[in-house]
Each structure stands twice: as C-alpha cells, then as structure tokens.
Amino acid sequence: MPNKVTIQDIAAALGLSRNTVSKAMNNTGVLADSTRQKILQKAKEMGYKQFAFLAPDEQPLFPVREIALFSSSVLAGSHFSAPLLDAFQKKISQHGISLTMYPVREKETSSLSLPLNFRRETTAGIIIIEMFDEAYSRYLCQQGIPTLFVDTAANISGFTLNSDILMMENHNSTFRMTQSIIDQGAKRIAFVGDRYHCQSFYERWCGFAAAMAHNGLPSLPSMSILAEDASPYEDALWLSSAIKALPQMPQAFCCANDFQAINVFRALKHIGLRVPDDAMLYGFDDAMEARIMDPPLTTARIPGQSMGFAAADLLLSRIRYPKTAYSTVYVQTEVIPRASTRQHPTKTSV
Question: Which of 255, 292, 296, 340 could be stapled to 283 by a disulfide with Cβ–Cβ 3.0 to 4.6 Å?
C-alpha cells in the first residue's frame, strides 16, 4: 500500500516551504494566486488526501476558491443555520474553497445591488440564507454566478428562479402535528404567523389547511392570526388582543415556527390561559427555547447538519456543471411530540 502524501512531500516536490504549502491547502494567509494554484495542482497530481477520492471531472476549480454567503439576518441565533454552515464549510474546505459572509442590507435589496465589498473575481458561487425578497432573488440569479437558495420567497404566484433551492420538509410534518391535535378532539385550531413570509411558512400553512380539510374542518383566514411579518407578534399585549378578537377561542394554535409559538404562549399566559389545559400549542424548528419552556413545545426538528452537507453538494455540483437542470431538494424533518399538545403520539420522521 503506497505511503500517504503529506504537505512536506508537496513542499519538497515544488521546492517550497512547508508553511507556504500549508497556507495554500488550508486557504489561509497571504499567498499569490499563481503560487496557490501551482500548489493545489501539484497536490492533486500527487493524490493528496484532500483530492484523492475525487473523480477527474470532480476536481476543484482553479483559481476560484471562495463561496459567498448572502444573508439579511443575523444567523448566529437562527435555529438551524449554525449546524448547517458548519457542515457546509467542512464540505467545501475539502475542495480548497472557503466561505466568506456578506451581510445584505436594506439599501442593497431596495437598489438591487451587490454588497460593496463583494469580490466577484474570486467567487465560485453564492449561498443565500434568510433572504425572502422576490425581486432581489431574481437579481442574484442574473449575475452569472451559480446560486443556491436555502428557503425562498413564498411562491404563491408560480414564479421561477434560475437557481437550485434547498428546503426543509414542511407540509407533511405540519399535517401530522395538526392531525394529532384533531385526533385528540380539537376542532378549532388557529394558525399563527405570516404565511407569505417565506416558502417554508407557506408550506406549513398549506400542511395545516390540508389536515383541517381532510377532517372536514374550516381553516378560514378569519379564524387565524395571519398579519404581515412586520406586525408586532413579539408584543404580548398585541398578540393577546388578536387572540381575544378571534370569533371563538381556539382549542389549539399551529404556529409558523417555534418563536411564534413562544409568543403565543406568553400571550395566553397574559390572558390567563394555560398550555395545554386551556389550549394546545405546537411550532416548527425545534429551537432551544422550545425544549426548555414549561411545558416543552411540540415541534418539528430541522436537521441542520444534513442540510449543510446537501447544500454543499448542490452548489459544488452547480459550479462544476452549470448547464444542468435546476433542482429543488427537500431534507426530511422529524416530528417531536412534547407536553404542549397534551398527548404524545409516536415520534415519526416525515
């Protein structure tokens, strides 16, 4: 069995220092593009571990070595973005590509412009997370750079993005949680959240509505709280007033995500109602707060790491084969039943 190729072997073959080769392999420090490309090419030729498992047509693209992350949100506090980005970075780093984050502010979105410090010449592709402006999404797809959207603007008009899209499964999970509530005898269930905020919220609304229709129950907008995302859902007084203004007090609340469910929990407490005794409650995402609230929240778990690896595969494939048909990929989610819905159905993957 041949000896494994080391960084020192590559350095010796090129007459360079080990430190210089290490910078190129790990994409760190300051190094001329020509030197970096020469090192990476030699590493590929010698079968260095980073490239040994790749087929000839799957080798890294040189000299481009960066993927840009565009987001208009602070992703550190997001429910699944941290494990997603961790897995994504691990996968692309195996191909000598780094991830650079570019915050997209309102001025760029409204003027349809790229961030000022964006480096087009070194960018192989763009991954877009937590950005739901349809016009800006179309603009990014027109830049001649491979893109991948993790969730998108709510597609209620049938628009098409010339991009690959990665989604978490939303419809079936919400259907199953709603069906479980109905099986417990609930007939008045309200949806809470802006169903048009993003595609995932819209699919959760559709899953909720489908379960209601399947059981011959109404899901009229007048029986839910569907105000636009800018409305003050975090204001317990506003939300408690919105709940009291419903035609009838719901027996359960289906929330667009866990943070909306936590807001409903606080609003119900303000009214003097208890979960699950007076009203059952369920969300989506399996945020940390959902696990520690009392009672813990029934929800659907998004597999962040699996989404990260899938995102890397999709975008790297698009970079290598830019003319292939675009795809939308769904990663399965897992229903996590907890005490906020009183009874605990068997845990299921959907």
Answer: 255
Sheet with 252-255, side-by-side order of all strands? 189-192, 252-255, 280-282
DSSP class per residue in 27-93: T-S---HHHHHHHHHHHHHHT-HHHHTS-GGGSPPSS--EEEEEESS-GGGSTTHHHHHHHHHHHHH
CB 298 within 8 A of CB 274: no
| Residue 158: exposure state from Cβ atoms within 10 A (0-12, 13-18, ≥19) | exposed
Backbone angles phi, psi at 226, to 5 degrees: -125, 25
- Report yes or no: 51 and 43 within 8 Å, Cβ to Cβ: yes
* pLDDT tens, the chain, 350 aa long: 456 888 888 989 999 998 888 877 766 666 676 787 788 888 878 877 665 544 545 545 444 579 999 998 766 555 678 899 999 999 998 888 999 999 999 999 999 999 988 988 889 999 999 999 999 999 999 999 999 999 999 999 889 999 999 999 999 999 999 999 999 999 999 999 999 999 999 999 999 999 999 999 999 999 999 999 877 899 999 999 999 999 999 999 999 999 999 999 999 999 999 999 999 999 999 999 999 999 999 999 999 999 999 999 999 999 999 999 999 999 999 999 999 998 644 444 44
d(CA 43, CA 124): 20
Residue with tokens 């480096």: 119
Max Cα–Cα distance, the chain, nearest Å:
79
For residues 211 and 174, the answer to whether their CB atoms sit within 8 Å is yes
298 and 265 in contact (C-beta within 8 Å)?
no
Helices (H), the chain: 7-14, 18-26, 33-46, 49-52, 81-93, 106-111, 134-141, 171-183, 199-214, 236-244, 258-271, 288-292, 304-320
